[in-house]
Amino acid sequence: MSSPLRPTVAIAFHSSNGHTAALAEAVARGAAEAGAEVVSVTVDTITDAQWAQLDAADAIIFGSPTYMGTASAAFHAFAEAGSKRYISRTWSDKYAAGFTISGGLSGDKSSTLGYFVTLAAQHGMHWISLGQLPGFGDANSESQPNRLGYYVGAGSQSRYDAGADAIPKSDIVTAERLGARVTEQAAIYIAGRAALAS
Amino acid sequence: MSSPLRPTVAIAFHSSNGHTAALAEAVARGAAEAGAEVVSVTVDTITDAQWAQLDAADAIIFGSPTYMGTASAAFHAFAEAGSKRYISRTWSDKYAAGFTISGGLSGDKSSTLGYFVTLAAQHGMHWISLGQLPGFGDANSESQPNRLGYYVGAGSQSRYDAGADAIPKSDIVTAERLGARVTEQAAIYIAGRAALAS
Amino acid sequence: MSSPLRPTVAIAFHSSNGHTAALAEAVARGAAEAGAEVVSVTVDTITDAQWAQLDAADAIIFGSPTYMGTASAAFHAFAEAGSKRYISRTWSDKYAAGFTISGGLSGDKSSTLGYFVTLAAQHGMHWISLGQLPGFGDANSESQPNRLGYYVGAGSQSRYDAGADAIPKSDIVTAERLGARVTEQAAIYIAGRAALAS
Amino acid sequence: MSSPLRPTVAIAFHSSNGHTAALAEAVARGAAEAGAEVVSVTVDTITDAQWAQLDAADAIIFGSPTYMGTASAAFHAFAEAGSKRYISRTWSDKYAAGFTISGGLSGDKSSTLGYFVTLAAQHGMHWISLGQLPGFGDANSESQPNRLGYYVGAGSQSRYDAGADAIPKSDIVTAERLGARVTEQAAIYIAGRAALAS
Prior knowledge:
The structure is a homotetramer of 198-residue chains. By secondary structure, chain A is an alpha/beta fold. Chain A has helices spanning 19-33, 48-56, 73-81, 83-88, 109-122, 169-197, and strands at residues 8-13, 37-42, 59-67, 70-71, 95-102, 126-128, 154-157. In chain A, strands 1, 2, 3, 4, 5, 6 and 7 form a 7-stranded mixed beta sheet that branches. In chain A, strand 5, helix 5 and strand 6 form a beta-alpha-beta unit. Chains in contact: A-B, A-C, A-D, B-C, B-D, C-D. The interface between A and B is medium-sized, with 34 and 34 residues.
């Protein structure tokens, strides 16, 4: 249960070989440092209790690898199972955001992020953009987040045959900042709801 | 100048023959009734003073007809001129939403709404979804908003050779509710900012 | 095995409750009448032999309901399993097209069709557009195909609680014509390959 | 006037400061080397004679910088002026393809390419995908085309403050190959039409 000024930020993600999980950890770290109560849910093993955690969250950040031009089939199975929440409008007015990773620099990650926006809109959620200008220079510099130049959400790139620790530092920092941003924005929103209710 | 609890909602739209203008009026009406101070800007004749009004708004709702699968060229010229605001991050964290109309039921209106989302994300804005389940039945019934079943924003359809008063009532109500929704959500957000600043 | 002038057109689709299957039958009918050898594959029960049929086809037409703003999870599982063909470029230069159905008039069917385009492009396939101007008037008139006004592919709409026989005739004719169009275009392409090889 | 086996490939592009023009030259070079009769049209100064050249082409390749998440306003003005061809179906069944460039690695180039697909579909054109697997390694290596990992079309990236000669060689080769691919595919198609007509 979140206090009015401490938003609950849920991260609902699928990771096949650890890359997306590494980004999810970075998002969680950024959110926690910004003051969020963080809930992390791996969507391919989601339980009823975890569905309830998503229902109670102030924001849900979607994460998935980009496979064949969209989120993974496991993520889509989760989203399809979420159709009951669509009908009951359970997630309406929550904040939403997203992140994805692929083996190519583009790799159609934009399609996955665009799909997350569509999914969020079907639920009546509000989409929090990445909010970072593109970084340039060394991909492993922590001072250059958003090296890939995304706007709708966070994009990361790493070779499939490399381990998750090969993800460039720029991408990790980008994910941390996304977690922080969603937290900060959700904190404003829930403070507003509390103020208007009082 | 908006008081903390009365959001300023700007509508930045292009209308060629009156259809989009009729929707913009409906959005404005819904926003005003929900308590917004409304600013309407026709983007093909925008002045420096109106750019400043957009800069000062809490939310900007984009509107355009869908021509050849995207917003009108006049709207794109406005968006391109807005690149200075992109660099200065002037519109960052504002709320954004959108509406469009075309002659066909689909007519690729989804592409225009998706473009609005992308534009908003480039500015670091937050996207407010339509938040209405699809309506069914008579297109001219006021009790069935969102007859076209959009989620990202408001879509309307009317024959090109018909006047703006031929726009179905369902679409007008949908636009009114979008204006109201953006206002209500922006009111929460600015109340939160005020609460956290105090 | 197709003769040079008789294209093999495969339809790879998922249907949950019969609506998409009814459209797939219409696509097949239109393709057969235009001279195609038609292969229909339900992707959730696809066999190795059927994968080989897709590999041998001149064109593959993708079909799925639109659930939560994209193709069904079952379709996505099929597409993900197709990643081996992506690596081997087995489907490169085949023709591709798509169709989808949802309960709402829009229902984000455009997102599903856009996803099909992205999937096809990942495979290096060529996308055949719907090629029909929007129809107007009675949805059940056979003389008004493409009542929904799509361009990228065929879109259909029917209430979820109605049977597949409630799909409007306009949508059925639209699907038939898509099957015919893909066949005609593929016939030109394979005739050209034969001519250049001789 | 093209002979049946020598396709006419038109490049319709807008360039503001030379970057897109450099890519257009690469596309033209690749097309010419593959046997095309090439027509290059700068869409912001298009003449009636050039519109007629586009009407007579077997394929039209669209090119534009990506500004604020879509093609430039000048390109959109061209596309909007092309609506007469939409009504007359003049471009129906032509081949289409596209390329774009932006200052960021992603920079929402996918949105521009997706818009090109939508525009082509409105005209009833067939979309030729890039058909290149992602390259890895040195961006300036000619042996690693498609370093950015696009599929729908060709994407390039170069700093805005650098001249057009700073565009990485990988991107130039990618554009050349796109021109060659469209030519090769169009040659097959027009050979097929000739074979079926004889």
